[in-house]
Design a protein that fits this description.
With 88 residues, the chain is mostly helical. Helix content is 74%, strand content 0%. The chain has one domain. It is globular, with a radius of gyration of 12 Å. 22% of the residues are buried.
Length: 88
């Protein structure tokens, strides 16, 4: 729910935005920050933005897509999101 609040769209609209290539860097940060914080990382928005920058925009989108699929599908991969971002 925090992701939806941060982005100002429902999770299905976010998924649609990914499909339609309508995702800004600010939205990416708004999605990834609470996910990374929930896995125990004490990161600020700027630090998450730097992670995205270092990994590359396409890689950031890939990770976000995995997160959205996990949320929609109810996948039990809690905590793996931080690993996916760090591997990038």
């Amino acid at each position: 729910m925090r992701i939806e609040t941060n982005v100002g769209r429902g999770i299905l609209k976010i998924a649609q935005g990914l499909q339609d290539a309508e995702m800004s860097a600010a939205e990416m940060v708004s999605i990834l920050t609470p996910v990374l914080r929930s896995s125990g990382a004490d990161l600020k928005d700027r630090e998450v933005g730097n992670i995205i920058w270092d990994a590359g925009f396409a890689e950031g989108l890939r990770v976000i897509a995995e997160i959205i699929v996990s949320i929609i599908g109810g996948d039990d991969n809690e905590g793996n999101e931080l690993k996916a971002v760090k591997q990038a």
